[in-house]
Amino acid sequence: MQGLVYKSTGSWYVVRDQQGVFWNARIKGKLKIDDDISSTNPIAVGDTVIFDAEDEATKTGIISKIADRHNYIVRVSPHNRNQKHIVAANLDLALLIATIAEPRTSSGFIDRFLITAEAYHIPAIVVINKADLLKEKHKEQLREWQKTYGDAGYEVLPVVALEPDSLAQLSEKLKGKTTLFSGHSGVGKSTLINQLIPGIELRTANVSDWSGKGQHTTTFAEMFDLPEGGKIIDTPGVKEFGLIDFKKEELAHYFPEMRAVMNDCRFNNCLHINEPGCAVKAAVSDGTITVDRYASYLAIMDTIEKKW
Ligand SMILES: Nc1nc2c(ncn2[C@@H]2O[C@H](COP(=O)(O)OP(=O)(O)OP(=O)(O)O)[C@@H](O)[C@H]2O)c(=O)[nH]1
Ligand SMILES: [Zn+2]
């Protein structure tokens, strides 16, 4: 049978077959995979697998094969960069939930998320939750982000997870797609998912007992069906994704607005820092590329050798 992996808890996988029946499956023997990333988990949420029934009555199965992935996102262990965990596979969209008030997401965090999505070739959007809490100075920040990220080609959507009426535009974007949801603890990710999928009842926290360190200790991603078609992959406890190591010359490729002009740089190995004839710097000067994004580029460039 062919199935889709909805949840992975280490050695067991929740797999949905093509009739919509859920199975508990595990790997037995050697799995045929072309795993060139040597991850700690061979199978991830979002994977398509081939499996056989082991016991029809208890709906347990054995996975024998995993289909090629068209993309995947990896988390790198902060302690050992060689330890990689595939968080999710076969994504159509990556959604970052950010907030300007309670708590405040930093632009650096947003930039790193967008770069990661670019590196994995996954379209990304930024949702600004808790729009109901925005004071005048926050609204200023919202407009700034809409301009900065909008110019770079990303949508910035303000929503109020607690108000279903504010979610129509977002729902439309999620239809028929498999979307990864991520965000810092406390931004309202669970509230938003609960609102988009009535009845799943993910645990939410009260701001009063929000410690700033995150409530969840589990890091098992899980996939959920949206009522109008499409899927959400929730990644509890995953704050940041790790990038597969890349070189300094590659960073500009992950900024769409830089990618668009960098072919005009005088040197083809231009790092767009202080080289003469740099088209990226020219675009910053004439305002085509915003100063904020360029500053982010320089800041991230600075950390590449130090590893992030
Ligand atoms: N005012 C306001 N509060 C919200 C909104 N969305 C969520 N909250 C509140 O923010 C708090 C955190 O929401 P959660 O959904 O638990 O946040 P989370 O991102 O899932 O956080 P973790 O569970 O720690 O991962 C809760 O008290 C929610 O009621 C919103 O749109 N407006
Ligand atoms: Zn350049």
Care to describe what's here?
The chain is α/β, with parallel strands linked by helices. Helix content is 22%, strand content 26%. The protein is built from seven helices and 13 strands. The strands form three sheets. Strands 10-9-8-11-13-12 form a six-stranded mixed sheet, with helices on both faces. A five-stranded mixed β-barrel has the order 1-2-3-5-4. The two termini are 40 Å apart. Residues 129-130, 132-133, 160-162, 183, 185-191, 204-207, 214-216 line the site of guanosine-5'-triphosphate. Residues 89-239 form the EngC GTPase domain.
Which terms summarize this structure?
308 residues; alpha/beta; Rossmann fold; Ribonucleotide Reductase Protein R1, domain 1; six-stranded mixed beta sheet; 7 helices; globular; binds guanosine-5'-triphosphate; binds zinc ion
Layout: helices, strands, pairs:
Blueprint lengths: L1 E7 L3 E6 L4 E11 L15 E8 L4 E7 L5 E5 L7 E6 L3 E7 L7 H13 L4 E6 L6 H16 L3 E4 L9 H7 L3 E5 L6 H8 L25 E4 L5 E4 L21 H4 L19 H7 L5 H14 L4
Parallel strand pairs: 3-5, 8-9, 8-11, 9-10, 11-13
Antiparallel strand pairs: 1-2, 1-4, 2-3, 4-5, 6-7, 12-13
Bound molecules: guanosine-5'-triphosphate and zinc ion.
